[in-house]
Amino acid sequence: MTTTDSTATKSAMAASTAVPPFAVISGAQVQRALHGREKQIVELVEATYRVHGAGDSVNPPSYFLRFPDRPSSRIIALPASIGGDVRVDGLKWISSFPENVKAGVPRASAVLILNDHDTGYPFACLESSIISATRTAASAASAADRLSRHRPRPTRVGFFGVGLIARYIHTFLAGTGWSFDDIGVHDLSADSAAGFRCYLEQSGATAPITVHDSAEQLIRNSDLVVFATVAGEPHVSDPSWFAHNPLVLHVSLRDLAPEILLASTNIVDDIEHCLKANTSPHLAEQLTGNRDFLDGTLDDVMAGRVTVPTDRPVVFSPFGLGVLDLAVGKHVYDEVVRSGELHVVDDFFHEMSRYG
Ligand SMILES: NC(=O)c1ccc[n+]([C@@H]2O[C@H](COP(=O)([O-])OP(=O)(O)OC[C@H]3O[C@@H](n4cnc5c(N)ncnc54)[C@H](O)[C@@H]3O)[C@@H](O)[C@H]2O)c1
């Protein structure tokens, strides 16, 4: 190798291990990057499920920080690493404080840290409640589509628990081509039901909206049921309410008694993740002592390895994978860079010379 070659190689190595600048991305910037891109984000989430299904990811169990003095609250850490085209590592750190809602403050707040693949250096901190709601809604919209391809497409949707996540799911359904003949709403809080109805009317939804006081009536009158409550344990336990075989997006994970899951086709995002933290699938595993009630993952359905029967309810229980936050977060980062509006924090990493 000539001196010139060796110098070029060294400078190429230095460039590839250069520490990236550290940026902070606000919620307003996140929203600008994601607004109106529902189809694109659903495609991104589906591609991420494929990468994860192919094993090109690391997604350890989420860590739940709980507090003896505030039992309804928690903060969850979701570390993850995704390969494929995204190639980024990172951590979502998301709080759930349900009491916030009474004070007019959203339940969940979050940040997402993205770490550089080559150096491990964190290179961005993003507001992440919007990213989290977006990836959750995109996953739900994907499931609604993929799980209804071999059965009559639902025309009557029922939202069970109508906070921020239900709003994002409706936006994603509408943004990916769904329209409904009827929209049902059920919530323990009359204020939430009224707020959601107001959102639906402003969103341009033309279907009649019915607020159901009865959980049973909401379910019996819907062939797509979206659970987005904050229930900590099952409160819907009568399998006969599901006799019309609806498609159920069980996003809040703990609403359904195991008996309902045992009478349904069960699709999850990741089997190991879903069978934890007293989710309804976890309770069904504890009740039966096995995992036979699980039919597969959404990736299995997308790849055609699992077909969904039409003669039972279908329940999609997504635990919510950190790799989805990373993929959507990196997409936001790239968009903000492209727009020329990346706010870099100068000198964030300061001790950069080993011996000073
Ligand atoms: N699986 C995932 O990937 C994922 C991701 C994000 C959020 N979530 C879950 O989505 C849920 C909703 O989140 P959010 O931010 O919209 O919460 P939120 O507090 O804004 O809204 C929840 C609504 O559910 C209602 N509710 C609570 N218990 C109910 C019950 N038993 N019956 C009917 N209504 C009930 C509340 O009154 C409230 O209006 C949470 O459980 C959250 O953990 C899941």
Automatic annotation (TrEMBL):
<dbReference type="GO" id="GO:0005737">
    <property type="term" value="C:cytoplasm"/>
</dbReference>
<dbReference type="InterPro" id="IPR036291">
    <property type="entry name" value="NAD(P)-bd_dom_sf"/>
</dbReference>
<dbReference type="GO" id="GO:0016639">
    <property type="term" value="F:oxidoreductase activity, acting on the CH-NH2 group of donors, NAD or NADP as acceptor"/>
</dbReference>
<dbReference type="Pfam" id="PF02423">
    <property type="entry name" value="OCD_Mu_crystall"/>
</dbReference>
<dbReference type="GO" id="GO:0019290">
    <property type="term" value="P:siderophore biosynthetic process"/>
</dbReference>
<protein>
    <submittedName>
        <fullName>2,3-diaminopropionate biosynthesis protein SbnB</fullName>
    </submittedName>
</protein>
<dbReference type="InterPro" id="IPR023401">
    <property type="entry name" value="ODC_N"/>
</dbReference>
<dbReference type="InterPro" id="IPR003462">
    <property type="entry name" value="ODC_Mu_crystall"/>
</dbReference>
<dbReference type="InterPro" id="IPR023866">
    <property type="entry name" value="SbnB"/>
</dbReference>
